[in-house]
């Protein structure tokens, strides 16, 4: 599990400190000092509730409260964490959950263990552009210079994103509801089609589509564009896309943008599915089209 390595290190280090529980409270803060500083609630261990969606299946079941964002109640934690849940589905960085849960639901040790500054910087680098696309800036409450350097006791990154396989960018976006809807919002066209063949030209991987297509979004596309649509993957000659298999005669959902007269990039490609999560994403797309155009999509 993604958190086990960090958790094992923290548990080993925690043995250097003595636990002193009194009525469920962690004794890392003096009660008198707590009252002087305005901190009424002493730190305590509580079970992570099942309705705290952001931090499920993280390798431990109890969290420290108040947490590292100074949320005093579990209801406050749950409400404040809601706005981050969708970011996990976009998979903007593999350590997003590690970073966020280290703050919202910190592991229940007898001292605070913060995420390292390098972990914050890595997640910010991977996710900030996605957040800015939806007009959300990186919040001050998780400003990276607030967190300790790696030389201190802190939670370090577990993944190096530079070591991912040589997959084309269009073929490595997450096939989650959030990933599909994010692709939809970033694209000017979204189409369901079968891929007849793949050609290569000037470093591009060109997808030759079969004649029958169904458009879910077609901003700025003329009839001629829709008929001749052959999306290309920029740099596709030097990357792989294991999602595509033209011999199986399957439907794909393809999203992208117009880059010039008769030229259309493919920025998201996935097999068309019939499972519940995929149907939910398609419904959200159709609802968005209906809202944008003031009429039910047909």
Automatic annotation (TrEMBL):
Gene Ontology biological process terms, A to Z: canonical Wnt signaling pathway; cell differentiation; non-canonical Wnt signaling pathway
Annotated SUPFAM superfamilies: Frizzled cysteine-rich domain, TIMP-like
Lineage: superkingdom: Eukaryota
Keywords carried by this UniProt record: Developmental protein, Differentiation, Disulfide bond, Secreted, Signal, Wnt signaling pathway
Record carries keyword Cell wall biogenesis/degradation: no
Residue pairs linked by disulfide bridges in the UniProt entry: 55-101, 120-144
Subcellular localization(s) per the UniProt record: Secreted
Annotated Gene Ontology cellular component terms: extracellular space
Protein name in the entry: Secreted frizzled-related protein 5
Keyword Lipid biosynthesis attached: no
Family, as annotated: Belongs to the secreted frizzled-related protein (sFRP) family.
Main location: secreted
One example GO MF annotation: Wnt-protein binding
Species assigned in the record: Magallana gigas
